[in-house]
Amino acid sequence: MALVHRIGLIFGKFYPLHCGHIYLIEKAMSQVDELHIMLGCEATRDKKLFIESHLPKQPQVSDRYLWLQKTFKNRHNIHIHVLDEAGIQSYPNGWQDWSDRVKTILREHNVQPTVVFTSEPQDVKNHALYFGCDVKMIDAARDFIPISATEIRRNPYKNWSFIAKQAQSFFVRKVAIIGTNKMKELPIQLANIYNTEYVANGYINYIEREILVKQNHRYLSEADYIRIAMIHADRIKRASDRANKLLFTSFDFTVLANYYRDIFKQDSEVLKELANNYHFDLVIHEEDLNPQNSELDNFDIVTKQIEGLLI
Predict the structure, then answer these.
(1) Looking at the DSSP assignment, which residues form a beta bridge with residue 285?
(2) Of 144, 126, 143, which Cα lies nearest the Cα of 135?
(3) Whose CA, among 10, 73, 206, 261, lies 20 to 30 Å from 184?
(4) What is the chain's pLDDT, residue by residue, as a tens digit (311 residues)?
(5) Are 11 and 118 in contact (CB under 8 A)?
(6) Whole-angstrom distance, CA of residue 115 vs CA of residue 9
(7) d(CA 282, CA 293)
């Protein structure tokens, strides 16, 4: 008797991808030979989900696809498809049109599912009706992974540990605290307190030296400043992959652009572009704080602002 090639089907918005999704996918994968994941997207609905959430920025379809792709990399028997749900009546209506669109994607890939996996009891009957195959429930009561995407959108930082590792860096809040003396130490202190990453820039001492010396004694060229900026951006990106909710640095691209202008008496379009478009969630300059404040005052003021990012 020939063995049946078992093909599973899973649906989700993965907004964001979390441990419950991963548990569903991995447990389903243990029961089939290959698994097809349908990433559902619809622009108006997705925008509404973001507006009603406390997410710091809206994940796009490309972000959600990348999270799945990175999480299940090198898994030749897990396949990810984008399911554009535009023009279909919103859930729980529109099952016929929605399933027809799914079937179009399946036909394009010569896929005939033998089982649909879901964690939603209310969908079992329609999955069976429209796809004509078995439907298996996995963790409907959220007993194994007690979380939902709705709860994460409502409070992403309280539920941080449930967000998929490959998705966390997208939601990391980036903080630049810029100053001298004790103020220089504050981002390092805060990184320690929040058990997260501090991104140093060892070039700042060279740059500050350049301001003090005559032009013919300077070591750094105009191109060096661009390289320093690119190195710093890359370090921030790498640190975001390891960060715990927050990331701290004592250097932003506006500071570097200003140094460049002071030394070369002209603007760098590249540095201006970075300063205008590289997003920090919070930038605090020492001169923005009351000069009469004590170090403890500044510590408490800044910490309160940091806490506001995690609400």
Answers:
(1) 178
(2) 126
(3) 261
(4) 456 789 999 999 999 999 999 999 999 999 999 999 999 999 999 999 999 999 999 999 999 999 999 999 989 999 999 999 999 998 889 999 999 999 999 999 999 999 999 999 999 999 999 999 999 999 999 999 999 999 999 999 999 999 999 999 999 999 999 988 788 899 999 999 999 999 997 777 777 776 666 665 667 888 888 888 999 999 999 999 999 999 999 988 998 898 888 888 899 999 999 888 889 999 999 999 999 999 999 999 999 999 999 98
(5) yes
(6) 6
(7) 20
Tally of CB atoms within 10 A around 261: 14
**Three-class SS state of 59:** coil
Burial label for 234, CB within 10 Å (0-12, 13-18, 19+), is exposed
Query: CA separation (Å) from 127 to 93, 118, 142?
Result: 13, 9, 20
Query: Tell me, what DSSP letter sits at residue 163?
Result: B
Q: Which two tokens stand for residue 229?
A: 């900026």
CA distance linking residue 75 with residue 57, whole number of Å: 29
Tracing tokens 């691209």 back to the chain, one arrives at 253
116 by DSSP, 3-state: which? strand
> Rounded CA gap, 136 and 145, in Å?
17
Q: State the angle between helix axes of 269-277 and 253-264 in degrees (0 to 180), rounded to the nearest 10.
A: 160
CA dihedral 137, 84, 54, 274 (to 10 degrees): 140
Report CA dihedral (242, 243, 248, 252) to the nearest 10 degrees: 60
Q: How many CB atoms lie within 10 A of CB 15?
A: 26
- Dist CA 233 CA 195 (whole Å): 21
- Number of Cβ within a 10 Å radius of residue 111: 15
